[in-house]
Amino acid sequence: QLQLVESGGGLVQPGGSLRLSCAASGFTLDYYAIGWFRQAPGKEREGVSCISSSGGSKKYADSVKGRFTISRDNAKNTVYLQMNGLKPEDTAVYYCAADPSFQAMCLTVQHEYDYWGQGTQVTVSS
Predict the structure, then answer these.
(1) Which of 79, 102, 110, 126 could pair with 34 in a Cys bridge, judged by C-beta atoms 3.0 to 4.6 Å apart?
(2) Distances (CA, A) of 78 to 8, 20, 54, 106, 123
(3) Can you tell me the distance from the alpha carbon of 20 to that of 8, in angstroms, rounded to the nearest whole number?
């Protein structure tokens, strides 16, 4: 069964950090671009960051630039999202998704992603 599984979410105080992981099972992530998306209550799902299969190209939403870092370890079949300087407005369910090709508009073309994880909750609150 082909699936993505996110982990690493939780409750953190403003200014804190979390590292999310996106692990694949049933297929190899080497050939897939990976995107991180999030959905807050009452809001549409939005793109946060994405990375090409080689890791050489990365994109970030303006709201997270300078605070979040996407990376991948293909040997571990895992993609990470390091989140620093977390703010209450970062509270959301975070999803990872896999796309066979890296899109220039990878943060917005959600329909291009073939596989999605079930999501992990991130709550930023004091």
Answers:
(1) 79
(2) 12, 10, 13, 18, 22
(3) 5
